[in-house]
Amino acid sequence: MPAAGVERLVEYVPAKEVGVAACSRRAGPYQRQVERWLKLAVDGKQSAADCAAVRRFQTTHGIHPNTGFAGPATWGTMRLLAARAHPNAAGRCPVRTTRTVCVDLDRQLMWVQTGANVTYGPVAIRSGRPGYATRTGTYPVYWRHKNHWSTIYNAPMPYAQFFSGGQAFHAIYDNIYSVVGSRGCVNLTYSDARRLWGALRKGDPVHIWGRRPGA
């Protein structure tokens, strides 16, 4: 089991602002997207009103530190909220009568659907970093190992479900919204990976599309 607090939503902030309790004066990397979501004036510049609105959102959704910096955890939480009602609204994941795993690298989200009925998720993911891209296409879940240990990277891969070579869904003991991606695997929080373990079976198709921003 993960240590208490490991799944807290931790926002990336610049090194100069770590530990600062005051409202951030810096525009975050997702400033425009966050402004648009909050229905603020979209100019990509941080204002006192912008910061106050972002802080309220961060406080409501348990994002720390709640300094108003528009970073990946804040924007990722907004993407997840927007997708909850209908994650496949754009129709990028094929609708089949059987269970299908859908992985959207553009939005860093995944879910499971049977027909048009979503049976798991959507949940946030962390996919491959530059040089370790998560492969796109359709693959079957071919091997599952609940307590897997990577001999390549000497690291735990709890609830590992492999779908393409060494790439798998698995839990991480880290911030799912960290700016550094995986080495190709589709990372989930521990609780999300544990629920996904119960939602899938060997042979289930995994459909992956898009590209991780910045990868």
Major sheet details: 5 strands, mixed
Shape: globular
Overall mean pLDDT stands at: 93
> With helices defined by DSSP (H or I, 4 residues minimum), what is the helix count?
4
Q: SSE string, helix = H, strand = E? A: EHHEHEEEEEEEEHE
Number of strands: 11
Low-pLDDT stretches: none
- Strand arrangement within the widest β-sheet reads 5-4-3-11-6
End-to-end CA span: 30 Å
Report strand %.
25-35%
The amount of helix comes to 10-25%
Oligomer: single chain
The whole-angstrom Rg is: 18 Å
Computed structural class: alpha/beta
3D architecture notes:
20% of the residues lie in helices and 27% in strands. It is an alpha/beta fold and 215 residues long. The chain has a 5-stranded mixed beta sheet with strand order 5-4-3-11-6, with helices on both faces. A 4-stranded mixed beta sheet has the order 7-8-9-10, with helices on one face. Strand 8 and strand 9 (167-171) form a beta hairpin. The protein is globular. The model has no long low-confidence stretch (mean pLDDT 93).
